[in-house]
Structures
1.
Amino acid sequence: MEIELTWAWLEGYPALDFANTVIRRGWTEYELVTSVDALSSWLDAAALPAPRPTTVTDDDLQSFLPLRDAALRLLRAATGHGDWHAADVRTLNEALLDCPEVTVLETAGSVVSRTVGSPAPFSLLLARLAAEVRDVLAGPRPDLALCDAPGCGQLFFQRRTNQAWCGPPCGNRARVARHHTATDN
Ligand SMILES: [Zn+2]
């Protein structure tokens, strides 16, 4: 199945924009970052916690995907979907340790984050994305949720208590799917 590459659902939270790079069509999941071009298009659309690297390579894609997979599993596990794996925590922490940063004093009342050494722009971006995911998981954020509707499966932050769907269209699709299941039986 050919999936049209749009990023219409990205919501401007780096940790979630990072994780929401697979999508459900029906109940089947599809990888959206299937090429360097797709990665580049995501970089243009997503909320990035570091400067956008001017170019990306296949090596960047190969380091993006395992970290994204770990982040996605951990964030899903935090919403009660799937298991929390120590190996995923190690993957996340390795990205952080790859690119250490120190908070230094800039002027009275303001600090700034400085990298140790001169990391490649893409490594810095991955480390900052890992830090965003760490902060959501360490929060903890009780408003983190997974929209378990057919055709969605996206992680989102609830805007009201017990919000089940990321938006009304997902609620409608889930109700229609439930209705079909009920009438099929
Ligand atoms: Zn949804």
2.
Amino acid sequence: MSVYVITGVSKGIGFELVRQISEDTNTLVIGLVRDKAATEKKASLKQAAADTAQIIGDRGVDYLVANGAFPSHFDAYDPIGNLATKPQELEAVCSKLFQTNVVGNIHLFNLFLPSVMQGKVKKVIAISSGHADLDLINALEVENSALYAASKAAMNTIVAKFSAQYKRDGVLFVAVSPGVVEVGHYENVLPEQIEGLQRFMGKIAAYAPHFKGLTPVAEAVRTLRETWERLSIEGGFAGAFVSHFGNKQWL
Ligand SMILES: NC(=O)c1ccc[n+]([C@@H]2O[C@H](COP(=O)([O-])OP(=O)(O)OC[C@H]3O[C@@H](n4cnc5c(N)ncnc54)[C@H](OP(=O)(O)O)[C@@H]3O)[C@@H](O)[C@H]2O)c1
């Protein structure tokens, strides 16, 4: 039996991961959803780790998937220079991004590592974003999502640092982008945001002419899982940041 712990399973990719993985009766899936009040008290993850240890006993965790994240909309459609008119919101969003997407995952990794060490597979997968790839930003001049991208880049660095420490114990830490996935993020785009969205989509089309639009979440999750099965320390992926294809092709 394989044991999975996955964060951010209330909706989107996390929800679909739990749905697909739990179809296999030979798996035990523990999905974590945030309790906003407890999150504010910073006690929820510690409790979740203790509760998980109770459920799984000495079986350990095979796959720890850091999926939950704050997908900021504030910076999603505008170049960074345009955010200057709202400095307070910029600061608040940066703090929330760093706290959720970086610090939250540091706590997650530290708290669950003893269970991962007990597991057989020993894979820690952080769901990242192609937005964090410097070569892609520079080649396509991707202006939007600067703050979100920076939080994911910081998370990728943290993943590499955990890998540097725990690779020798056989734990694979890896950051994987899921591609551009349909989870309803663009359902409430405001008229003034449409231009920025179209600019971004135009750049995607130039980068990947085969791209036919947002990937349905079920398909994206299947691809993601197939890829993380292939990733290993022996294959050279310890601490790496890769796409859903397991390479640097982001779409
Ligand atoms: N969809 C894409 O195209 C895409 C592309 C690149 C990367 N990603 C990454 O894929 C992962 C899943 O995102 P998604 O697309 O499925 O988005 P989503 O549908 O918005 O789901 C995000 C999940 O993260 C949780 N979350 C949000 N803020 C949180 C916080 N402050 N603390 C703890 N949990 C929080 C949400 O819980 P609540 O319901 O409580 O808010 C939700 O379960 C994220 O890491 C995202 O960055 C997605």
